[in-house]
C-alpha cells in the first residue's frame, strides 16, 4: 500500500493482495483517506488511526506468483502484524469499549523478585452493570491512558510486536467473586523482561525502597486502567467436584481463584480435587494456596502432587482432608495412568507444557471432551 504521507497528499491508493497457496494476485486501486482520533474511533473500536479505502478498480491474475507455500506447513503470522480490531458495527466489538468500569491499582504484595499480587479496586460509572467474574476467568485491562502509546518506529527487530502494542493485556483473576458484583479483584503478575505493562508496574513497585517480600504496599497515586471486559470459559461451576487440575508454574492462578471459591462456599462445597503442580517455586505457590487450604471445608478432599527440583520447602500444616506428595522430577507420561478416568480435567500453563499433559491424558484414555485448557504465551 502507498505510504500514509502519499495518501494524505494524493488521496489515491494501490493494494496488492497475494495468495501464497494458489499463487493468485488481486490488484486494487482506489481513493483513500487517513482518519485520526474521534473520526477513526467512530469506525473502528479502540483504534485511533485508520485509513479508509474506496475501491475504484481491480485486476485479478491467476497463478501469477512464481513461489508457493509448501503443502502441510503452518502459516507463521508476522510479528509486526497488529492485533485484530473490529469495526464498530461488528459483533466482536460489542462490549469492548463501554468503559463502564475502571480498575484502580491500590495495593501490591511482592512474593518474589519478579512475582507479585496486585489488588485493584473497581470504579464503576453510575448505572453501570455488575462486573461478574467466575472462578478461573480472566479480565482484560487497557493501560493506554497510563502508559501512553508507543513511540513511532518503522521496524524493531528486538521486539517487533511492540510496534503495534495497544497496551491491552489479559490476566486470569486469582481472587474469587462468586454470585456477586466484583468491587475489587486480584491479579498475580510475573514481570516480563522488556514488557511494556508489567515492566512499568514493577518499575513503579521498585520505587518503594522499603519493599520486603510479603509486605503490602499501597500505591499512591494509584494506577488506573480501563476494564475492557471479563473473558474465558475456563471456570469452576457450582456442581459437586470430581476434578483434575494441572498447573505449570504461574498457571496455578485460575486454581487459586477456584480454591478461594471453595473456601467461601464452606460446607456447601463437596467433592474431590487432584491438583498436579509443576514448578520451580513450590514454596511460593504453597504460600499463595495456604490461606484457602486452611479454610476449605472437610467435605472437599484435596490431593496435591508437586513436581519440582527444589529439595527443601515447607508444606505447612495440612488438614485431614488434604495431602501433598512431592516428586523430584518432571511430569512423565506414565504418571497419568493412575488418574481416575471420570475426572474433569483443567490444564493451565505454557503451551508446550499443556500440549504434553493433554497428550499424556489422551494416551491413557481421557476423551478430548473431558479436557479444558487455558494457556499463556
TrEMBL record:
PROSITE patterns, A to Z: FAD_FR (PS51384)
Keyword Flavoprotein: yes
One GO MF term attached to the UniProt entry: oxidoreductase activity
Entry keyword Flavoprotein: yes
Cofactor field: FAD
InterPro entries: FAD-bd_FR_type, Flavoprot_Pyr_Nucl_cyt_Rdtase, FNR_nucleotide-bd, OxRdtase_FAD/NAD-bd, Riboflavin_synthase-like_b-brl
Keywords per UniProt: FAD, Flavoprotein
Pfam families in UniProt: NAD_binding_1 (PF00175)
Domain of life according to the entry: Eukaryota
Classification via Gene3D superfamilies: Nucleotide-binding domain of ferredoxin-NADP reductase (FNR) module, Translation factors
Residues in FAD-binding FR-type domain copies: 98-237
Cited PANTHER family: FAD-BINDING, PUTATIVE (AFU_ORTHOLOGUE AFUA_6G07600)-RELATED
Record-given protein name: Unnamed protein product
Organism field: Aspergillus oryzae
Amino acid at each position: 500500500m502507498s505510504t500514509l504521507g502519499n495518501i494524505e497528499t494524493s488521496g489515491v491508493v494501490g493494494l496488492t493482495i497475494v495468495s501464497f497457496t494458489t499463487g493468485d494476485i488481486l490488484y486494487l486501486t482506489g481513493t483513500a483517506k487517513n482518519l485520526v482520533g474521534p473520526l477513526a474511533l467512530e469506525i473502528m473500536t479502540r483504534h485511533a488511526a485508520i485509513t479508509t479505502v474506496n475501491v475504484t478498480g481491480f485486476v485479478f491474475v491467476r497463478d501469477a506468483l512464481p513461489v508457493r507455500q509448501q503443502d502441510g506447513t503452518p502459516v507463521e503470522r508476522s510479528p509486526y502484524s497488529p492485533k485484530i480490531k473490529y469495526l464498530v458495527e461488528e459483533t466482536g466489538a460489542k462490549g469492548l469499549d463501554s468503559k463502564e468500569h475502571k480498575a484502580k491499582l491500590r495495593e501490591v504484595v511482592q512474593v518474589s523478585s519478579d512475582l507479585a499480587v496486585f489488588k485493584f479496586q473497581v470504579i464503576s460509572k453510575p448505572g453501570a452493570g455488575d462486573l461478574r467474574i467466575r472462578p478461573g476467568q480472566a479480565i482484560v485491562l487497557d493501560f493506554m491512558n497510563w502508559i501512553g502509546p508507543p513511540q513511532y518506529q518503522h521496524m524493531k527487530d528486538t521486539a517487533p510486536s511492540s510496534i503495534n502494542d495497544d497496551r491491552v493485556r489479559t490476566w486470569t483473576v486469582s481472587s474469587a467473586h462468586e454470585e456477586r458484583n466484583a468491587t475489587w479483584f486480584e491479579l498475580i503478575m510475573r514481570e516480563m523482561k522488556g514488557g511494556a505493562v508489567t515492566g512499568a508496574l514493577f518499575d513503579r513497585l521498585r520505587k518503594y525502597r522499603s519493599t520486603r517480600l510479603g509486605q503490602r504496599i499501597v500505591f499512591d497515586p494509584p494506577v488506573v486502567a480501563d476494564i475492557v471486559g471479563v473473558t474465558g470459559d475456563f471456570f469452576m461451576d457450582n456442581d459437586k467436584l470430581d476434578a483434575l487440575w494441572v498447573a505449570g508454574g504461574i498457571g496455578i492462578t485460575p486454581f487459586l481463584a477456584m480454591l478461594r471459591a471453595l473456601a467461601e462456599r464452606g460446607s456447601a462445597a463437596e467433592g474431590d480435587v487432584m491438583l498436579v503442580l509443576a514448578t520451580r517455586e513450590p514454596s511460593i505457590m504453597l504460600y499463595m494456596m495456604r490461606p484457602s487450604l486452611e479454610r476449605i471445608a472437610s467435605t472437599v478432599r484435596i490431593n496435591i502432587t508437586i513436581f519440582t527440583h527444589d529439595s527443601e520447602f515447607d508444606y505447612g500444616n495440612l488438614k485431614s482432608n488434604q495431602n501433598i506428595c512431592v516428586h523430584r522430577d518432571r511430569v512423565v507420561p506414565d504418571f497419568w495412568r493412575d488418574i481416575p478416568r471420570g475426572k474433569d480435567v483443567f490444564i493451565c500453563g505454557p503451551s508446550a507444557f499443556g500440549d504434553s499433559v493433554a497428550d499424556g491424558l489422551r494416551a491413557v484414555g481421557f476423551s478430548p471432551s473431558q479436557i479444558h485448557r487455558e494457556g499463556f504465551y
